[in-house]
Amino acid sequence: MAELIVVDDEPDLRLMLAESLGAAGHEVRCAADGLELRRLLTDAPADLVVLDVGLPGEDGFAVARWLREHHDAGIVMLTGADTPVDRIVGLEVGADDYVGKPFALPELAARIAAVLRRRRPRSRARGLPEGVLAFGSYRFDVKRFRLLDATGGEVPLGPTELDLVAAFATNPGRALDREALLRLAPARDGDTFDRSIDNRVTRLRRKLERDPTKPELIKTVRGAGYLFPG
After folding, report:
1. What is the pLDDT at residue 14?
2. Is the pLDDT score of 189 beyond 70?
3. What is the rounded CA–CA span in Å between residue 186 and residue 189?
4. How far is the CA of 222 from the CAs of 83, 123, 225, in angstroms?
């Protein structure tokens, strides 16, 4: 049903949640702390992160804040101190829901399902046909490799610009650095310098953004690269 990551420093709890959520049909990976979570997200994005507040070193609030800055995954926080202050802080840093320990597994599963429903892929929510992805107000036709505007007209873009659109449209909510973009959308003119990506993104913004100086479609994430929010 969804790609989940459970982040908790208690091995027994991680195993229990992985088994329970896996039995519900989810693909579940586990991490003991924020550093391991970062490594897992480098390998593949997640739809939702179940995140313990009381992590060793960097606490769950700091990890949640980082997630909100760099990824578009849902966040359900777990805590052993279920106080109003903790709930407020958790929601302020970007959590979608907050569950106190001890908790019933069915309740946690239901809360996760509710968050996933609210954050379901927009292309599916908008009823787009198979092979067509939402890209802001545009539609990217994967099979025909072209970008369509809201009226269905084709947007005139060059091959390298379409390569970039494909990279962003197929990775919504994931910050892509220059190296990743060069891999997903290699330069076709032999220019492999990192700064070429910045120039290409700038040109694409001029063509697609309502206000290129305040981009909404392709956002800059400081220290991480560029992000299509999805």
Report:
1. 93
2. no
3. 9
4. 33, 27, 7
